[in-house]
User: What shape does this take?
Amino acid sequence: MPVINIDFEDLNRMLKESLRSEDFAEIIPRIGADPDEINETDANVEFFPDRPDLLSTEGVARAIRAFTEQELGLVEYKTKKPSTNMVVSPKVLDIRPHVLGGIVRKIKLDDTAIKCLMELQEKLHVTLGRKRSKVSIGIHDLGKLVAPFNYTTCSPHEPAFVPLQKDYEMTPEEILKEHPKGIEYAHLLEEFDEYPLITDSNGEVASMPPIINGALTTITEETTEVLIDVTGLDFNAVESCLNIVAAALVERGGEIEQIEVKYPSEKIIVPNMEPITHKIENKYLISLLGYNPENFALFKAFRKCGMEPDLKDDIWHVKVPAYRADILHPVDLVEEIAIGLGYDNIPEQLPKKARFGSALDSRKMEVECRETMLGLGFQEVVTLTLTSTNNLHENTGRESENEATVSNPVTEDYHVLRSSILPNLVELLKNNRHRELPQKIFEVGQIVKEHSNRTSLSWLELASKATFSSAKATAEIISKRLELNGEIVDEEDSMFIPGRCVKIKSEDFTLRYGEIHPRTLEKFEIGYPAIGGEIVW
Assistant: This one.
């Protein structure tokens, strides 16, 4: 979970009543945070990822003002009408289709405020932005740019501009290959021949999303006006990030001015800081809460969470601020009520009904599989869900089934979600060659086929005399015990010896068994014959 640093002197500048570190330590867990370390001057606080609006000192100050009743209810964000625009090129829509922006004027920044702003930007990149793949944010000194602005594309070779953390010009291609941020995020643009670019009317580069901003527009303590640009693949996430950053800058004395974004087919004016009204039935709220604290207490609890409620015809109409990206369902409002009331103040009650859990059908099947295999003298093992193409295909001769892969694997030995358990069992026997024969193992668990989870049972027997007849006898007992009936056909599976492999297939399952191919055994350095099989539901 994201951790932010909060300077108490900076925090208290945004509060009407100053807090001591002891007061902060008592309040912060009650609004949904876990303090890692608190001292007299600052604190490191861990927040849940579902509250991106709290990932800055500004957001925490706003929440504390409401929760401690310094400023109850909804904060209204006034916006001025747009005085400029941003033109979106049709060419960029296939690369990074969504862009929104805004201007904030009359802000007051010092070194601490700039650090908070940069920390908020990076925390949003990691959480809502999914490491910039979904959303990326640029914050620029507006005084260094000339409106209007353009969101377009560029070639890998031009224009050259000075990126952040450098003092010389680099082409987009050089940035992706040589700049630390370019190297880190180059994979986001690797499939494209052109890259997104945000420029002003003079052609000065403000940003090359989602990689790097231009050094020209670096935020300093002299900055009083900023341009915010947010680009990404998901409009809702892009809008949420824009609203969160704009609201944070208002805490620094800023005034929001909208921008007209001109897409090829439409025009929109952003940011839209109007609150969103959510509804929840009072009866539903009380039933989930577990008791009725009366309407006035509920009204105040909503306001302590920075919202504005109104009860009409036994339905709460709750105005939620634009920066609250986490309110999606009425149950989220119940959570806000619980926070506003205080979890410690909710009365304890014994359950009125006794309820008992029951196993899922898939779990019942797994239990039957285990009982069957243990009854046949097999020992259960558990292997990793992650494996490698070397185990799945190169060692078994099986063709690729378009398995799901891990984007950033720690090691090449574990970079693919297994589509079969059987190769894992062969590898396990390889690591236990020093054990006595016979060795009989099985595993029942999840595999991934066609990007869907499937249940599978696999078994393997290593013995000096492991024959097809033994494999057939084992498979028949398993089929009878699990009541598996299907059509028997010859199977050509490269993991098994040709002519010594059988498949039983129906609409509900596929079972195959036989003698493991000597080529596979040789690949795994096993010197004895092996038989086995697998069932996939």
User: Anything to note?
Assistant: The chain has a mean pLDDT of 91. The CA atoms of residues 383 and 424 lie 7 Å apart. DSSP finds 15 helices and 27 strands in the chain.
